[in-house]
Every structure is written in structure tokens, then in C-alpha cells.
Amino acid sequence: MGFRKILVALDGYPASLGAFKKAVEIAKTYGAEVVALQVEEDVPLLPAEKMMEAHIDELVTSRPLDVAKEYGKMAGIEIKVIKKVGEPVAGIILETAEEEGVDLIILGDSRKSGFEKLYLGSVSQSVMENAKCPVMVIKKGWMNISDLVKLAKEVEEKPEEIVEEEKPVYDPQVIKENFKFSGTLFLILSVVYFFAATIASKPFKDIAAYEILGLPFAVWCGLFLVVAGIVLTRIYINRVGGEGA
Description:
It comes from Desulfurobacterium atlanticum. With 245 residues, the protein is α/β, with parallel strands linked by helices.
């Protein structure tokens, strides 16, 4: 049993380039078609999340689709490139997989720690849980991408090719369901906020001043509120990612 069509998600980071190289290798073995997908998020990351992503890995190229096409020519494989804008990334990958009728999805995994996954979520995990076809995850460092890194530098020096972006289509029913889900998360966050505000109020000033690991309990409540807000936001995004398929 072979593969006819392979979808690989590209973001310009080492892990995704390794996934692309593996996709090309498999395509050459089975004579399969490769679809390279780049998803640009239309919701900007929080400053803390940008710092965390920068800490995780270093961007190799800002033009991964151009690199994919050039590498495909060198390997004798035709690469179909698709660029989409939207959120969540996992949902768009799954949606594209169904639209293109692929029988294999290949993703790169950046080896995030458990805490980083809690904040940023795991696209590969969400895709694996909801995909209707096999999913292969390539860890950073599994593939030698030195040739792709060299090619990326050459591509960056050339004029950028225009790739038509596919805008997301919003289903009113999906929006309604997601609105209900977001309302539930907002209610949870409101309860957490009310608890933190109550602790900080005058009647509970003694409890608020009680120190834990050198910090007043009120400060810990505030930090917990911030973390809860980010975590609930990411839970929402991952949930929508599964439903978007």
C-alpha cells in the first residue's frame, strides 16, 4: 500500500522543513503528489507568547513555500503550494487535508516542553487526534536539513513570488457553537476573577497579606488569573481546531 497525495505543513522553522524533506522522500518512493501548506494566523500572539516561540526555535526562512517549490524542482517532484490565513492552525490543516483528499499528513514537532505546550498548544497533537488519515510527526533533528537551509538563503535573495491566499469561510452554525463555548470559558474566568478580587478586598486583607514563597497570597491570585486567561484562550483555540475539521 502506497501514498497518492501527501500534505505537509510549513512554517519556516527547522522541524517543519524536516517534515517537508521527509514528504519529498516518501513522494519519490511512491510517486505521490506533495501539497505544501502554509498557514498564517490572523490573531497576533501575545508578547509573552512571541518571546516563548522565539526561545523554542529560530526561523530558517520567511518564505517556506518558495523554498518548497525550488526544492521540488531539484528533486523532480511537483509541489502544489497553498497559503491560507486564519485560526486555528490545526483546524485549517485538517480542512485542507479533506479538501485535497490526501492520504497522509506530515508535520514537524518543535519539542516543546509540557509548560510551553500548555501556553502555545500543540498543533501536531490536535491534528493527530482529529485527522481522518495517517499522520506522521517529524521531530526536530531527525532529518538533515542543511541543504534546505542553504537553499532558503538563496531563495531569500530572490524576488518573492506571489502566492494567492485563501481566506477562511465562516459557517454561522460553527460561529454560534463556538460563541457558546467561549461563553462557558468566560464564565469560568469570571469566577476566577471574582475569587481573586474577593481575596484582595479589605475584609480578607489578612489572608491577602499571607506570604507564600516570599510573595503575598494576593499576588499569587493575580498571577493565577493571568495564567488562567492565557490557558483558557488556548483551550478555546484547540477546541475550535478540532471542530474546524
